Amino acid sequence: MVRLPYVTALTTLFSYGLLFAFGQLRDFFRRILDARKPSNLKGYAPICLGLEDFYTRRLYLRIQDCFGRPITSAPDAWFDVVERYSNDCNKTLHRTTATTKCLNLGSYNYLGFAAADEYCTPRVIESLKKYSASTCSVRADGGNTKLHTELELLVATFVGKPAAILFGMGYVTNSAIIPALVGKGGLIISDSLNHNSIVNGARGSGATVRVFQHNNPAHLEEVLREQIAGGQPRTHRPWKKIIVIVEGIYSMEGELCKLPEVISVCKKYKAYTYLDEAHSIGAIGKTGRGVCELLGVDPADVDIMMGTFTKSFGSCGGYIAASNEIIHHLKLTCPAHIYATSMSPPAVQQVISAIKVILGEDGTNRGAKKLAQIRENSNFFRLELQKMGFEVLGDNDSPVMPIMLYNPAKIPAFSRECLRQNVAVVTVAFPATPLLLARARICISASHSREDLIKGLEVISKVGDLVGIKYFPVEQEKTTAVEKLKKIQ
Amino acid sequence: MGRRGEPYYVEAAPPVDVNKNTEWFMYPGVWTTYILLLFFVWLLVLSVSGCSPGAAWTVVNLAHFAITYHFFHWKKGTPFAADDQGIYSRLTWWEQIDNGQQLTRNRKFLTVVPVVLYLIASHLTDYKQPMFFLNTIAVFVLVVAKLPNMHKVRIFGINADI
Questions:
Q1: Domain presence at residue B24
Q2: CB B11 to CB A1 under 8 A?
Q3: Cα B26 from chain centroid?
Q4: How far apart are CA A116 and CA A135, in angstroms?
Q5: Is B159 among the domain residues?
Q6: So what's the pLDDT on residue B79?
Q7: CA of B66 to nearest chain A CA: how many angstroms apart?
């Protein structure tokens, strides 16, 4: 739920209308001017038909320099961004050899494992020499090493479930598991803001998909009741299986899921729950065990817990943790396990070392310090931004904080101006977010020091004033009004 | 509380529409933007051409007819290579909104707008001939295109799939 000034809503809609109108006008003239050129299709059908690539050509390409910026160092708290230039209004970008050192406010580097770490990196290099960069084989065949079994056990105990299974890619974990769990005749109820991988997996499964309003357990109950009463479409037979899919932290909102309420609703109607902890595992909770620990939910109440190693553990890949029977079933049926190359051994070692650091098993308390640091950093940053008058989404303790921009023109303005002042931020627009709600998403890391955060705040405040995104009244005004009253008295 | 000059805030709950092409229509401020846009275009036409107000409304009505017919009832699919795997590639925008449900508030609003434009334009031109005929065609085509019975109907195969 975001609150925006009404005038901002009107101007944002008008801006998008204007951009759309200009895009159509340009397309119209392009069609006229190209009518004389001979078509080089040679009888083949065109790749994009009609309006399909309109958004990419006329809206995205105009501000292409704000997205996908190449970097030349590890994505630590400070990193080197390659400078690019364009000769044709951003249709093509050319890299230069110059780089700028920028503050990194965009990487999902929650615990600071993205750059070289004193415990993890030597062990990763050792495992690279011992096991080589890739197993070149599937888990079921020759790709199962000692490291993989060790990590599966470690992940299972870390998360609090009996067993776990690993996959080489986080996106694939969702999109290949959901079809293995539910098929035709089943029902998937997913949160309206779920990640694309879940949507893809749900569509690929063949089950009926229904959506409930984001983070609204009352609406979830309504949808469940309606669907259970109605049964399968057309035949009205009872559903074979109902799975409710929610995420721990929603990456575009920074919000935590209302997990206790969702679990109680699901238990009442005997639906299974699937929790995607891509952003919350390792980043929140007192010992880093994710949203279950933070909200006090027993992991045994969630049927399937999914997570990725890309965000907090500085590696790649994903995992599913569930009961022994479910994991055994997945090992026999999931194509991502039977046919896909297993996780690269150095990557597995990185996760093992990272989890050992978090648990304190490396002999130091760096893990606990990192967890405390990221919590402090996130709360400090969020509080300061809100005091300055920005509209910041997300709950306390969540390291993801989107700053609302709304207007499409403010997206490149904010992004470019911040880069000029050596702060790299990630901006997100339609269609990854709803049309009106474009935002700049800040991800805080445990490797950001207090000075880094203060510098980031200064730059964002200056740029925010320039661009005009301080939609809420600044709190200072209230205190000066109170002081004036006191003076009168 | 409520000092003058304080902006008026609205709440924007993310709508439950999965079709990114149409979900923008469920946000607050869309209807107002539409009406304000029509009004400003009328002012623009009036100031640039210096014709009578009725003729300006006729121009707005006919331009509105052309543009909305093209974008709501002619163009099919979505303007981005969406991950929806092309399930909307045979549906016009009008058939996509509100998930295909008929007679919702948005649809009723969009059906009323051409009728109101028609009434204003015909009244201000005193129902005189060439303008009246053109305005009537515009409103007739637009309202018929928006009727629930015309959902997914392609008359004589016009604009049917490739």
A1: no
A2: yes
A3: 14
A4: 23
A5: no
A6: 75
A7: 14
In terms of average pLDDT, the best of A324-333, A478-487, B28-37, B74-83 is A324-333
Task: Look up residue A337 and give its two tokens.
Answer: 């396990």
Q: Which residue in chain B has the smallest CA separation from A209? A: B18
Kind and range of the H or E element at A6?
A: helix A6-34
Q: What is the pTM of this model?
A: 0.85
- Condensed to tens digits (0 to 9), the pLDDT of residues A412-438 reads 999 999 999 999 999 998 778 887 889
Residue range A206-226: mean pLDDT, rounded = 92
Give the residue from A466, A370, A461, A449 showing the smallest Cα distance to A412.
A466
Q: Any chain A CB within 8 A of the CB of B1?
A: no
User: What pLDDT does B148 receive?
Assistant: 87
End-to-end CA distance of chain B: 60
A192–chain B Cβ distance below 8 A for any pair: yes
pLDDT band at A42 (very low <50, low <70, confident <90, very high): confident
Nearest CA-CA distance, residue A2 and chain B, Å:
5
pLDDT over 90 (residue B21): no
What are residue A455's DSSP bridge partners? none
User: Would you mind telling me the total number of residues written for chain A in this entry?
Assistant: 489
| Domains in chain A, CATH or no CATH each | 50-104+402-467 (3.90.1150), 119-359 (3.40.640.10)
Contact across the interface for B14 and A17, Cβ inside 8 Å: no
- State pLDDT tens for residues A110-126: 999 988 889 999 999 99
Q: Are A374 and A444 in contact (CB under 8 A)?
A: yes
- Domain membership flag for residue B160: no
Q: Which of A8, A13, A252, A469 to mutate to test the interface with B (most CBs of B within 10 A)?
A: A13
Domain limits for position B141: 51-150
- Kindly write down the DSSP assignment for every residue of A241-260, as one continuous string: -EEEEEESB-TTT-PBP-HH
Residues 6+ apart with CB under 8 A from B98: B17, B22, B104, B106, B107
Q: How far apart are CA B111 and CA A406, in angstroms?
A: 29
State whether ipTM is beyond 0.95.
no
How many contacts does A have with B, using Cβ atoms within 8 A? 109
Q: For residue B5, is it within any domain? A: no
pLDDT band at B1 (very low <50, low <70, confident <90, very high): very low
Q: How many domains does chain B have?
A: 1
* Residue closest to A354 by CA, chosen among A172, A123, A165: A123
Across the interface, whether the CB atoms of A435 and B10 are under 8 A apart is answered: no
**Nearest C-alpha in A relative to B90:** A50
Environment class of A61 (CB within 10 Å of its CB; exposed 0-12, middle 13-18, buried 19+): middle
- Measured CA to CA, the distance from residue A98 to residue A106 in angstroms comes to 21
Q: Give the pLDDT score at A489.
A: 52
Q: CA–CA distance from A175 to each of A203, A336, B16 (Å)?
A: 9, 9, 21
